[in-house]
Every structure is written in C-alpha cells, then in structure tokens.
Design brief:
The complex is a heterodimer of chains A (667) and B (249).
Chain A: H1 16-23, H2 29-32, E1 36-40, H3 44-56, E2 59-63, E3 81-82, H4 94-104, H5 111-130, E4 156-157, H6 163-180, E5 184-187, E6 190-198, E7 201-209, E8 215-219, E9 222-225, H7 246-253, E10 258-259, E11 264-270, E12 293-297, H8 300-307, E13 321-322, H9 324-328, H10 338-350, E14 362-365, H11 367-380, H12 388-414, E15 423-432, E16 435-436, E17 449-451, H13 469-489, H14 503-522, H15 528-542, H16 549-569, H17 581-605, H18 629-632, E18 634-639, E19 648-653
Parallel strand pairs in A: 1-2, 1-9, 2-5, 9-17
Antiparallel strand pairs in A: 3-4, 6-7, 7-8, 10-16, 10-18, 11-15, 12-13, 12-14, 14-15, 18-19
Helix pairs in contact in A: 3-6, 3-13, 4-5, 5-13, 11-12, 15-16, 15-17, 16-17
Chain B: E1 3-11, E2 20-29, H1 35-48, E3 70-72, E4 75-76, E5 98-103, E6 111-113, E7 116-117, H2 120-129, H3 150-160, H4 167-171, H5 178-189, H6 192-195, H7 198-211, H8 222-226, H9 234-248
Parallel strand pairs in B: 1-5
Antiparallel strand pairs in B: 1-2, 3-4, 3-5, 6-7
Helix pairs in contact in B: 2-7, 3-5, 5-7, 5-9, 7-9
Classes of the chains: A alpha+beta (667), B alpha+beta (249).
C-alpha cells in the first residue's frame, strides 16, 4: 500500500487538464440515474458538488450537521474570491495566479492541481454571476476587484464584506433547485460518524439523526467528504463551534491517508481573547490591511503602561511607534502574507510589546488612511483649507463605506470605537492546509472515497493566500469532481443499489453505537469542554505559531495524557436517543484528541520551516523561515495503523517542472 | 464589575411534551462575555451538577450563519440592534437583572427542544423558487457580458444579506414571513438574470409561504426593526408589486 500515485497527466502544464478531460471515462446520462453518491458537508465545496452531480443525473444524498446547507461555515468568509479574469488589465493571467499560489504556499503544493485551479477560476465568476450572486459592480455596471495579500495584481471579486455568504447562497440555491426536483435528498441535522468500506471500496456511511438520535445506514457507489478543516483542534479558532474533523478522521482510520496535518494557517488579524470563558475568535478581514497600519510601541515602558491601562495608544507620539511590518518588509508592508504577519506579531508580543492586559495584541490603526481619504475627499468636494475636524469627518465616512460592517462587528465585541482608537488584533487559527491526501482526481487512497475543499490537502501547500479558499472550494465542487468522479463510476453502472444489510454495515453501526453508549454511561467528572480546552492550550502553546523539537515531543506526551484522562473521566449527560449537544461534542473531541497527536508528530518530523509551519530551530538570522528543499520537498502522507503514534509516513515527492524553487521574500 | 443574574429559560424535552419556564442563577458574569458564552457558563454548571444543559442553536458565533435564534426579554436577538444573539454582549445587562430567554415562536416553527426550533418551512420556501434555473456546468457567458447598474447590484446585495434566522417571523404578531421571502424575491427581481423566471418565482414562493402557515403582513414594520441585517421593508413592497403583476399578466 505504500505507492502513492498522484495520477498527474503527462504533457505541458497548460494542456494537462484539457487533454485529460478529453480522455476520461464518462457515464451515459441514462445510467447516471442508477448511481448514488453521498456528499458529506454542504459548504462551498460540498454544496456545489451536490448540485452539479444532481444536475448531471446522479442520485445525491447530502448531509449537513446544521439545519440548512446555508449555514455551513463557508458563509463566514468575508473578503473575496480570486480569479484570473484580468478585468483590471494589470497583467494578470492563469499563469500568474498559478505562480502566486505556489509561491504563497512556499513550494509545498502540487503544480498540476494548482494550475488547474487557476485555469477554472474565471469560470467560477461567470457561473456565480449567472446564478444571481450580487458581486460588487462599478458605475459602468462591470464587476469590481480589490487587492489581497501576497500578490501584485487586483484579482479579488467580492460582495461587500460577505463574499463567502453570497457564494454559498449561490450554491445553496443550485442545491434547492435539485432538492425540489428530487435529485438531491437533503439530510439536515445529520452527522456522519463513520464510513463503510465494502470490498475495499467506500460504499456508504453511518450517520446520526441529531434530533431523534437514531443511527442510520446510508449506501452509495461513491462517498465525497467535504467536511471542512480541523482548526477547532485548537479549541479557539475563527471556525464555527460545530466545525469538526470527524468525517475526515474516520475516513483516515478506514484507510484514507492524511497529508501534511501540521500545515495550519494562523490568521494575523483577529480580535484578541478576553478571558477563559472565550468560546471562539472573530476574524477581521485581511482587506483591512489595505488601509490599516500595524504597530506596537517602540519603548518597552510605553507598552507596560498600556498593558496596565495607564496610557492610551493615541497618546503615543508618531516617532515612538514601531510599524514593524513596514520596517521588516518594506515592499509588501502591511500586506505581507498571513504566516509572515502572524509571526511578526508574535515576535513583538513575546518581546513584551503587546498592547492589552494579556500582552497578546497589536494595533491596527486607520488614522493615516482616515487623514489621507479625508484630504482627497475634501479636494473632490472643492473644500480648500479644510479643518482637521472636517478631514477626519470626511475620512471616516470613506472608511465606513469600505469596511463599515467590520468596524461594527469590532465595536460590538470590544466596546471601543475603532474610528477613534486603533483596533487591537492578534493572530488566531483560521484554516488548515493539510487534510486527506487526494490524487489529481480528488480521490483519496480509498477507492470511491473523494475529498474536496478545505478537507483535502491539495492546493495551498504550507500557506494559503487570502481569497483562495472560496476559489478552491467551488473549483473542486463545480468543475473538477463532477468530471473526475465519472471515470471511477463508469464501471459501476450495472452494480445496482448497494445493500445496507451486510456485515460491513452491521459492524460499522455496532462500533458507533458502542462508542456513543460508552459516553452516556461513563458518568465521569469533567465536561467535554474541559478536555477540549486543555487540548487547545497544548496545541496553541507547543504546536502553534512557533514550534521546537522539545516542545513537540512534550506536546505528544501531553496530548496522550489528556486523551487517556478523557476516556476515563468524561461526563456526558442526557441520552442517546434524543437531541444531545454534549454527546455530539464528545464524539468530535474524541477524534480531535487523536488527530492532534498526528498533527504534532508531523510537525516534529518536518525539520524545516515553511509557510505556516515554523520550527524555531530552522530560521535565518533575521528570523525568517528556512526551507529545506533538498530534504523536505514532499507531501508528508500518513497511514493509520491502529494508533496515531504508530502512523506510517509515505512521501509524495513534489516535482517542480514549471517553476523553480526560490526563497520566498516579501522584503 | 461582574454580574449575578437570574435567568428564566424555556425548557421543553421535545416536540411532543409541554414546556415551561425554569429559573436559574448565574454568578460572576463578565460584561465582556457574549450572551451565548454566558449560556455556556450556565451549561457547564448544569453538566457539573449532572443536569441536562439548555439546548440552543448556534454555530458561527460571528453573526452570519443565522443559526442562533433566541427571544430575549421579549425581543428577537435581544435588546441591541442590527446584531444576532451571538453578537449580543453582557454589557447590555446589569447586575441583578432577570432575563427571560425563549425560542423563536411561530406556528410554522415548532419547538424541537428547549430553545431550538424547526425552520424547515424556510427551506421549503427556498426550494419552491429561490434560485435561477441555470446549470452549474460553467458553460455560461463571460461575467461582464451582463452589465448591471451599480444601484441595482447594491440593492440586490442588500436584500441578499438575509441570513434566514427567522427573527422577522418571531417578532411579527402575525408570524408573517414576508420580509424573508421578499428578500430572496427582490435579490433576483433586481438582476437581469433573475427576470426570466421572475413571475413563476414569486407565485411559487408565496404559495409555499402560505401553505406553511405563516401569517399575513399588516405593515407593523416590527420585522425591519428586529432584523439583524437591516433588510428593508421596501423588499416587501417590491414583492407585492411583483406578485400583483405576475397574477394579472
């Protein structure tokens, strides 16, 4: 089982996808109605895949743990979606988007997949507009674009600060059309708890009806996992409370290899935590860094005074402020990529310059932009020699038009007016680049099991660029999977419905039932959250933004201890056959406690720094990440063998035929 | 200063049993907590005591998924404006307060458990016509070949900002879903792509809305006041025009 075949087509990179599609096996429309496909998760990737597969004629069963597909966490994406339309005429192209994505991912992603992503990106915009997604327009009626980090062109399409919401509602509307036709059977408030393998192929799932508690069997000819990322392994993250790794982790335990679990994105601009009761962290969009300047005090005594509440940021003179991103990365400045900006914030805060009571916050300051916009606006309005008050009034209006909803969110949470005093921000877990390993067809190492969207590992390498997650989710769901899955299903047209009264289903259901019964009957001493918070602390402190060999070794031992403690002492009230949120959480945290160990093990194994994975031993004198292309230009692909500690490493060597390795510099 | 509060919470085992208000005390609540974090504290306490925690819907906790749906002191999403329950913070309350917490109530939203209601009626309305019948094959025209006046694109976006939480229904004395339905009808009615099926869409969606048992609109305007996304009443007027012209012509 150790051969990993990525199935990348031969030929020049620009022709691979087109030529491959020409030769792929297809399923006759009349036969598609004899084939069932299960889609787990209905965010951008799962929702778009379910709609498209149903349109093509397959029978789709879609599963969501929320009460509607419209609530998947893709909805929270704020800033935008990239596409190489070159509407701005600033020199963009598929090739440039491909290059930026590979470089942004620190040369740890697969060239052929990324090129395909860039190639279909334009089509996504066409598709969404045809569906009635109200993307932002300019006064001529054409689509507008904005800039995001790590690129030198404007290629980001957006719908105010709610791009993810609008794109998800687009996919949701396409799903609704198919639900109404009976081609998608929608299972809301259902959670997949295991995958069922029959004769080596994925043939179904075990799911729990979260209202009645009933354990159900569902069969299909193929299973698509689209369940998102595993960032909640840190307990605190920008993810939704229910976001979990169970579908992907169960797939892993049933034979799907897990790739690069240590590649996590810590987003630089989130609202800092305020206390132990904190349940989640809120993102402030990367688009704010178009106009906001990030700083901390230059003098340690100023920082101390601020931490003690004796000094306000507005009292610190310009020359006493350290705009550390502008200082360290003059060419990209405040728009340096996420991994780099996050580490720079941590470096300053670790040195004692943090700006809130916990010392874990930096300022994001809009006063320069307010002044600049105010002066521009005054000029446009023909106001000569405007007063400072007038300039600020006009400037604040411009900022409000651009970022009003984000400023409102900030004010509601922190209770401070960000127009008047700088925002406080700090990095938080946001996205996981790692995930189930997939080949060029997006199939995992288990035949018939596919993985799309954030749940797979494929396109973002060691760091994802802003506005690329929405692009990947929709590319996988609308344009890639619906083609590639036909190649696998073509021989299945005569198989007939997959029965669920077989030993494989019996066994999978029995295991799930026993596990849930265990939780109910354990009657331990601590709640699920108690263990989840403990796990989160270990992950954040030792497997977070800065990692060391010693810290990772300690983390592995500590994770094992928490896991042991969890299985002895977890307490879950209520019963199995009813709506029971504590039981749902227990099943998810049990999986996080295993995944976390593989995560730390992967981080320990990768003796280099790249993208979001920063090993403190491997850095330049200036504190930049030091990659080791000679030894680590591979995807770390883990096979489950019974325990996370005994996972076996396989390597997919990354071959760069189109691009050559370069040190990633944003100076 | 941290707060001590009395909570009166709707508890109901499931759809078949009768519910009632139950009193709880929570202590040492920080003003910086969100309302749902305060409920987390209560639940942690209940689990410790071996009692069943209060079930409530929530997910993103940043005001966009539309899952959270509490009726607090007689107001959908509580006393603050233009926010969802998850964005409400405890600084809006004071030490010693008694807070009433109920589910979003409407005939079309039956209680599933405690504070969780069934909003499948909304799903069925969307399935009746909340889409443009275009295949997702990608074989469409270039996005810029459809020009849309910025004004209309912006109005369409404002309508599309609806998160489907149901505050409009819970607030309305008639349990009318007009604001919710009109937001989707308006989003598409304002775009050239959506005009093609505009007639069928409005007729089908309104028919389904009536079938689900939502009440009529009597222009009390309460829905607009409580909507966390500021969806405008003008959408209802637009839907009425669309409906009228679709019915006549």
């Amino acid at each position: 089982m150790s051969t990993l075949n990525s199935k990348i087509p031969e030929g020049p990179i620009k022709d691979k996808w087109t030529k491959y599609k020409d030769k792929i096996n297809l399923v006759n429309p009349a036969n598609k109605r004899n084939i069932d496909i299960i889609v787990v998760g209905t965010g951008l990737a799962g929702g778009s895949a379910a709609a498209t597969l149903a349109e093509q004629g397959y029978n789709v069963k879609a599963f969501a743990y929320q009460d509607s597909p419209r609530r998947a966490h893709s909805i929270a994406a704020q800033g935008g979606i990239n596409a190489s339309k070159n509407y701005m005429g600033d020199g963009d192209s598929d090739y440039r988007l491909f290059y930026d994505t590979i470089k942004g991912g620190d040369y740890r992603s697969r060239e052929a997949n990324v090129y395909r992503l860039a190639e279909v990106s334009s089509n996504i915009i066409d598709q969404c507009v045809a569906q009635g997604v109200p993307l932002a327009r300019d006064y001529g009626g054409q689509l507008d674009n904005r800039s995001f980090g790590g690129t030198l062109v404007s290629r980001t399409f957006y719908a105010k600060g709610q791009t993810g919401q609008q794109l998800l509602l687009g996919a949701y509307s396409a799903m609704n059309r198919q639900i109404a036709r009976g081609k998608i059977q929608m299972f809301n408030r259902h959670e997949m708890l295991d995958v069922v393998i029959v004769n080596g192929k994925a043939r179904g799932i075990i799911a729990r009806d979260m209202i009645t508690g009933e354990i159900e069997r569902h069969s299909a000819h193929a299973v698509v996992i689209a369940s998102g990322g595993y960032g909640n392994v840190y307990y605190l993250s920008t993810l939704a409370m229910g976001s979990n790794a169970t579908a992907a982790w169960k797939a892993h335990k049933k034979g799907a290899y897990f790739a690069n679990p240590c590649f996590t994105q810590i987003h630089p601009t989130c609202i800092p935590r305020s206390g132990d009761y904190q349940s989640k962290l809120t993102l402030m969009s990367e688009s704010l860094r178009n106009d906001g300047r990030i700083w901390v005090p230059k003098k340690l005594e100023d920082a101390k005074a601020i931490q003690q509440g004796k000094l306000k940021p507005t009292q610190i003179a310009e020359e006493d402020r350290d705009y550390y991103l502008e200082r360290r990365y003059p060419s990209f400045g405040n728009l340096a990529p996420r991994d780099i900006s996050s580490r720079a914030a941590k470096e300053r805060c670790d040195a004692g310059y943090g700006v809130n009571a916990t010392g874990e916050a930096v300022y994001l300051d809009f006063s320069t932009a307010i002044n600049r916009y105010g002066k521009e606006k005054a000029f446009v309005l023909g106001i000569h020699n405007p007063t400072q008050e007038k300039i600020i009034e006009l400037g604040e209006k411009v900022i409000n038009e651009k970022y009003g909803n984000l400023f409102q969110m900030y004010e509601k949470i922190i209770d401070e007016n960000p127009y008047k005093t700088p925002m406080m921000i700090y990095p938080a877990t946001h996205y996981t680049m790692g995930g189930l390993w997939v080949d060029y067809n997006l199939m995992t190492t288990v035949p018939g099991m596919y993985c799309i969207g954030e749940a797979n590992f494929s396109d973002h390498g060691a760091n994802r660029l802003g506005a690329s997650a929405l692009m990947q989710g929709l590319a996988d769901g609308y344009f890639v999977l619906p083609y590639t899955i036909g190649d696998y299903l073509a021989p299945d047209i005569k198989t007939g419905a997959i029965p669920t009264n077989t030993p494989e289903f019996d066994e999978a259901e029995k295991a799930i039932r026993e596990r849930l019964e265990f939780f109910i009957n354990n009657k331990g001493t601590h709640s699920v959250d108690y263990f989840h918070k403990k796990l989160g602390k270990i992950m954040w402190n030792k497997v977070g933004m800065g990692r060391t060999e010693q810290g990772l070794k300690e983390a592995i031992v500590e994770i094992q201890q928490v896991r042991e403690d969890f299985w002895k002492n977890v307490k879950v009230p209520g019963a199995m056959n009813e709506l029971n949120p504590e039981l749902e959480k227990a099943a998810r945290v049990a999986d996080f406690l295993e995944l976390a160990e593989l995560f730390a093990k992967d981080a320990l194994e990768r003796n280099e720094s790249c993208g979001g994975h920063f090993r403190e031993e491997y850095q330049t004198e200036e504190g930049e990440a030091m990659r080791d292309d000679a030894n680590y230009a591979y995807v770390a692909v883990w096979e489950y063998t019974g325990k996370p500690s005994e996972a076996v490493l396989h390597k997919e060597e990354l071959k760069f035929e189109e691009l050559e390795f370069k040190t990633r510099s944003y100076k | 200063m941290n707060m001590n509060l009395t909570l009166k919470v709707w508890r109901q085992k499931n759809a078949q049993t009768k519910g009632k208000m139950v009193d709880y005390k929570v202590t040492d609540i920080s003003e910086h907590m969100s309302f749902l974090e305060m409920l987390d504290v209560l639940n942690e306490d209940l689990v410790k005591k071996g009692e069943e925690p209060v079930a409530f819907d929530h997910d993103c906790r940043e005001g966009i998924c539309g899952m959270c749906s509490l009726f607090i002191n007689g107001e959908a999403h509580g006393p603050d404006r233009l926010i969802t329950t998850c964005q409400l913070h405890m600084r809006k309350f004071k030490n010693g307060d008694t807070i009433y917490i109920e589910p979003f109530r409407a005939k079309a939203f039956p209680v599933i458990k405690d504070l969780i209601v069934d909003r499948m009626a909304f799903e069925r309305i969307q399935q009746a016509g909340g889409f443009i019948s275009v295949n997702t094959s990608g074989n469409t025209t270039d996005a810029n070949s459809i020009l849309i006046p910025k004004h209309n694109a912006d109005l369409s976006m404002d309508a599309a900002a609806c998160i489907g939480c149901g505050a409009c229904v819970a607030t309305c004395k008639n349990s009318s879903a007009m604001l919710f339905v009109s937001a989707k009808v308006s989003q598409f009615a304002l775009l050239p792509q959506g005009r093609i099926e505009a007639k069928e869409r409005v007729l089908n969606m309104v028919r389904q809305m009536d079938l689900e048992g939502f009440g009529n609109c009597t222009n009390t305007e309460a829905c607009e006041v409580e909507c966390p996304k500021g969806i405008s009443l003008e959408n209802i007027a637009r839907m009425n025009r669309e409906y009228l012209s679709a019915s006549i012509f």
